[in-house]
Amino acid sequence: MADEKNFDLTAPHDEPLGQTYHRGPVILRGPMIPSNTTTGNLLAPEGDTDWLHMDPWRVLRIQAEFVDGFGALAELGPAVSVFGSARTPRTDPTYRAARHVGRKLAEAGVAVITGGGPGIMEAANCGAARAGGTSVGLGIELPHEQGINKWVNLGITFRYFFVRKTMFVKYSSGAIIFPGGFGTLDEAFELLTLVQTHKVTRVPVVLFGSEYWNGLMGWLEETVAGFGNISPLDPDLVMVTDDEDEAVRVALSVIRG
Fold first, then answer.
1. Is there a contact between 147 and 223 (Cβ–Cβ < 8 Å)?
2. DSSP letters for 224-256
């Protein structure tokens, strides 16, 4: 039996530990009752701003990015993502090819999603916008980023790469990947990983430009698969082509059924 001398015997018999304090769903009594209330803490002037750079606050910013992204894209409808280098000049043949791809996707009634930047992304957005389609740009906050290109008619900028990549995967039913650098490779391998591990239902991935991609695909199929580190790539889900119309056809294969 508990030692009664530790109880406040002057308190009501039904509250042996004294007053009960409610802080949300938490009940506090006796010495556990704080000296300040939750509302008081909320309204108190804050001199120290270090909390702005702490992980709990970052979690809220990350959550807000997900909410903003889901809210902006929830009613987008069928869409295909187009990835590729921001450094591709407008005189490059792949720029023209990406613009053609964007136009054909828009003419099929499908939204075009890019990273919103220049180069290949601008080309695909340009093709989609000029065809009267939905041209989406999912930008990323970078020190030297040029911002969302002028051909985007639905754009959002993210702080965090992983939130942005979630939006690409969640709202795309196919992907066409043009030559690009680390960002493009990251997006390509993200999709290939999800496809190979069956984390997504079915997302056809098209690698446009055989001269650029054949070396990588050969290494994956011969070296990586040869060492037993991956299963053979599904040819129905991953293909390399130099034909813009074939790229569009494969990317739309899930949408069209």
1. no
2. ITTTTSSPPP-TTTEEEES-HHHHHHHHTHHHH
DSSP code of 78?
A: S
Instruction: List beta partners, residue 63.
Output: none
pLDDT > 90? residue 93: yes
State the Cα–Cα distance between residues 28 and 244, nearest whole angstrom.
Answer: 67
C-alpha atoms less than 13 angstroms from C-alpha of 46 in its C-beta half-sphere: 9
Q: What pLDDT digit, counting tens, does each position of 132-151 carry?
A: 999 999 998 877 666 899 99
Taking the model in full, what pTM does it have?
Answer: 0.80
Q: For 152-163, what is each residue's pLDDT tens digit?
A: 999 999 989 999
* Tokens at 203, concatenated: 């997302």
Q: How confident is the model at residue 71 (pLDDT cuts 50, 70, 90)?
A: very high
CB 54, CB 138: distance < 8 Å: no
Residue 3 clears pLDDT 70, i.e. is over it: no
Task: Give the Cβ contact number of residue 41 at 10 Å.
Answer: 10
Distances (CA, A) of 177 to 35, 49, 126, 141, 207: 59, 43, 16, 22, 5
Residues 6+ apart with CB under 8 A from 189: none
Alpha helices in the chain, H assignment, sequence order: 38-43, 55-73, 93-107, 120-130, 161-171, 182-196, 210-218, 244-251, 253-256
For residues 231 and 139, give the distance between their C-alpha atoms in angstroms, rounded to a whole number: 33
Here the tokens at position 23 are: 């802080």
Give the residue among 176, 251, 243, 188 at the shortest CA–CA distance from 210. 243
